[in-house]
Design a protein that fits this description.
Helix 2 (about 35-45) crosses helix 4 and helix 6 (about 110-120) runs parallel beside helix 7 (about 135-145). The protein has a 7-stranded mixed beta sheet, with helices on both faces. A two-stranded antiparallel sheet has the order 1-2. The chain contains 10 helices and 9 strands. With about 290 residues, the chain is of the alpha/beta class. It has helices spanning about 15-25, 35-45, 50-55, 60-75, 80-85, 110-120, 135-145, 155-170, 230-240, 255-265; strands at about 85-90, 95, 125-130, 150-155, 175-180, 190-195, 240-250, 270-275, 280-289. It is elongated and about 70 Å long.
């Protein structure tokens, strides 16, 4: 593959292009070089990855080669691949994302699973998703439980614009979108469940300065020094907004389970437990009002 910015006079095969791109992408931290190369080439060609893999000996059209080089340059400069493509897979959905939103991650699907497992799917309950970002959790729940009433809140109007676009594109326009500071719009005992993937990374964590997190909205990742400030506020507000027996479920860091359980206990919640993600890390703590 010709270096970025140069033109290759000979035709470039798909397999050679992918091999060279994966080698270049291997320099990035926390990446998946081959997968990313395939995704970027699929974006440039308009072909599905399966077609690229089925016809590795085919050559790229010149326009596609130029487009691929441009996309690859952006990724090598550190731009998250989700922002380059403008979308990210989550649950069973393909969600629009921008630099104004957090990139949905697989571990957050544990939060969706928790709500689906612990709440009555046959009853028309009211659920609030706090700090919705691009709307990932609210969209997944609305898709699986069309009889539920979903409200999605965020402080960022730009993030909410992305969430609205996702709900509209997915035919989930019944989701109520509110610009709010956590649970401030909700009356006492008005909700059956509160779910949230709030910012929980301590501001001193070095992971905030490398890879995708270095390009994501800082306010969506960290609430401050110890990482628990947002969860404290949510737990305090939710106690008044939840009906008796209502569910509170929050995502948190792999090493924060014990602190979150104590925080919930101190605020009078019961039935407190922490669930692990697919990697075996404590990821979601849930409790009852």
């Amino acid at each position: 593959m010709a270096p970025i910015g140069e033109r290759s006079e000979r035709a470039r095969r798909i397999d050679d292009t992918l091999r060279a791109a994966a080698a270049a992408l291997a320099r990035l931290p926390d990446g998946a070089p081959r997968l990313e190369a395939e995704l970027l080439l699929a974006e440039a060609t308009g072909w599905p990855r399966t077609r690229l893999l089925a016809w590795p000996e085919r050559t790229l059209e010149p326009v596609a080669a130029v487009e691929f080089d441009a996309l690859l340059a952006r990724r090598l400069a550190g731009e998250p691949i989700a922002y380059i493509r403008g979308r990210q897979a989550f649950w069973t959905l393909d969600l629009l994302v921008t630099g104004d939103t957090l990139i949905p991650r697989p571990e957050t699907e544990r939060l969706v699973e928790t709500a689906l497992e612990r709440l009555d799917g046959a009853r028309p309950i009211r659920v609030a998703d706090l700090g919705t970002g691009c709307g990932a959790v609210a969209a997944a729940l609305a898709r699986e439980r069309p009889g539920w009433t979903l409200a999605a809140t965020d402080r960022s109007e730009r993030a909410l614009a992305v969430a609205r676009g996702n709900f509209r594109r997915l035919g989930l326009e019944r989701v109520l979108v509110l610009r709010a500071d956590w649970l401030s719009p909700f009356a006492g005992a008005s909700l059956d469940a509160v779910v949230s993937n709030p910012p929980y990374v301590p501001e001193s964590d070095p992971h905030l300065r490398r890879g995708d997190p270095s390009r994501e909205p800082r306010s969506a990742l960290t609430p401050g020094r110890d990482g628990l400030a947002a969860i404290r506020r949510i737990a305090g507000q939710a106690h008044g907004c939840l009906r008796a027996g209502g569910l509170l479920a929050v995502e948190h860091g792999f090493d924060q389970g014990s602190a979150v359980r104590k925080l919930m206990a101190d605020r009078g919640y019961r039935g407190i437990e922490t669930l692990v993600d697919l990697a075996g890390h404590e990821r979601v703590t849930l409790c009852l009002r």
